[in-house]
Amino acid sequence: MMRRLAIAAAVACAFAAPAHAALTENLTTSVVAMAMGNAVTADPPGIQSIHFNPAGLARLTGDSESIHNFVASIRTSASFTPGQGFDVGGWRDDPLSNTSTGPVRQIMYVPGYGMPGWRLPAVAVPGIGMAWNKAGSPWTFATDSYMAQAMSLDRTTDPNDPGQYQGRQLQIQRLVYAAPSVGYKYSDTLRFGVSVPIAHAAFVVDTNMRFPNELLGVFGQLQKGWCPEDGGNIIDVFGFGVCGGGKDGMVSPFKKAANMRVELTAPFDPTINFGVLWETSPKLAIGAVYQGGSKTHYTGNYVFTTDPMLRNFVRGMNASLLGPIAGAVLGFPSSIPAEQKGNMSATIPFPAHLQVGIKLKPVKYIQLNVDASYARWSEWDALRFQFDQSVKLLEVARLYGIPDSGKLVIPRGYKSVVNFAYGLQLNPIDRLSIRLGFEPRKSSVPTDKIDLLAPLPDTKLLSAGIGFKLNKNTDINITGSYMTGKFNAPANTSCNMNCNTFLNIIYNPYAGQDVRGDIHVRYFGFEINKRF
Questions:
Q1: What does the buried/exposed string (b/e) look like for 358-380 if buried means 16 or more CB atoms within 10 Å of the residue's CB?
Q2: Where in the sequence is the signal peptide annotated (predicted)?
């Protein structure tokens, strides 16, 4: 059994990939739970109790295994329309106006290897769990492999996709590759459990960058009025050199300025889950689970690739008489390399999560589950990255009040919310279970913080599945699920995306645009459970 477990864990590490947008809990984790709208805290599903309520392990008898697999796809889109009176420092001809994002695919991160470079229409998330219980013992031991958190977007199919400025590629995943766990049967009605999921976490962002804001727009208009079309101005040479960068050094708030790619991992990041299950009778059960969070410490590398606009502008300024003096006062670099790379680190919280639930079974053939959950996504107030050196591109941002060019802070402003979930199970015959789930998921991304990096508004998750006992020792479960949601962010309402103010350099690439978007996620899950 241990050999089979090791092989399965290796397969999961090799092929698992995120299949969902950010801030998703309890998805691609359990086929049964997904069919019940993830309302299973008071009726935890077999070995997957490790995640949903480890006290449920104490209901297992004998040795068993669970082989499970998910196939999932995500589709998200956004459209951009100039807001009323659209104007960014005198500029009105944004090439992204009246455009829409293009095809979206999924990518994958293979622990120990990295990004294979595949663009996938859907991804598979396999896993295997094992449980051991000695006859008559109140103790049950188990482990499992599963995806605890995931987000996957790839917009590189179309190089002109307007979504490129908030994620050409985005991959956030938390793969639990081992979860040593124990359940204890205190009495016939009361059980406790503890699990320690050990995860490999990956965080990859590849995005083009542009900086439409009032200050940059006003300066670009000043250049247009002062600098000849060929870029030469003899008076400017004895001044501040604003024309010295030539045609390519002319500033525009709508030009692509740079590309940033960061690739971070945390290969060993354990958390802890505590669960309790009180089954007062076959008709009523109450469960609760606390999933501990983690201040996950990531390390990895970065690459900043700067386009000619800023490179030539800084070069021209430093070739003039007064430009170097002004640059020194403003903290500008003496030059910006075309490419700057190195090592970096970040501490990104994996939020703690509390879920409680109740199971009602008024008659033998009908069961209703209701859960309430709370996750501390408010810990994502901002993402903070530490570089191993001063990034020359970020030195330009000192003009915008960003003092430390060795750090990058990306505001998020997420919030913690309470969500409810509902599940219905029908058992028309002893061997067959029919499951239906509904989960109206309130987003942890407020409407004034939504963007294309986390295009997750309030959504509705609908699920349906069946379970069938092949014999007394084997059963199978099959589930399909669909989640959808829409958002509308009028101009200047989300300062993670489209605010148009004087110093909004980090980060509003769609300043002044009305942005509408949606998300559609489809899942299919299959598992087979065997008892020995």
A1: bbebeeeeebebbbebebbbebb
A2: 1-21
Average pLDDT over residues 509-532: 95
At 12, the pLDDT band (50, 70, 90 cuts) reads: very low
- Tell me the angle at which helices 323-330 and 308-318 cross, rounded to the nearest 10 degrees: 120
Q: Which two tokens stand for residue 465?
A: 């599945």
Q: How many CB atoms lie within 10 A of CB 237?
A: 17
Model confidence pLDDT, tens digit, residues 262-316: 999 999 999 999 999 999 999 999 999 999 999 999 999 999 999 999 999 898 8
Please name the amino acid found at residue 320: S
- Which helix (DSSP H) or strand (DSSP E) does residue 440 occupy? strand 432-441
CB atoms within 10 A of CB 382: 12
3-state secondary structure of 272: coil
pLDDT for 529 equals 96
What pLDDT is stored for residue 27 in this prediction? 66
- 510: helix, strand or coil: coil
- What are the φ and ψ backbone dihedral angles of 31, each rounded to 5 degrees? -65, -45
CA distances from 156 to 159, 208, 261, 451, 517 (A): 6, 11, 13, 18, 18
Is the link from the previous residue into 507 a cis peptide, with omega within 30 of 0?
yes
pLDDT at 501: 81
Q: Is 47 helix (H, G, I), strand (E, B) or coil?
A: helix
CA atoms within 13 A on the CB side of 34: 27
Q: What is the mean pLDDT of residues 221-226?
A: 86
- Across the strands, what pairs with 88? 91
Q: What does each C-alpha distance from 43 to 31, 128, 478 come to in angstroms? A: 14, 20, 18
Confidence of residue 411 (pLDDT cuts 50, 70, 90): confident
Residue 68 has pLDDT above 70, yes or no: yes
Using CA atoms, how far residue 35 sits from 29, 150, 463, 468, in Å, is: 11, 19, 5, 14
Distance of alpha carbon 153 from alpha carbon 364, whole angstroms: 44
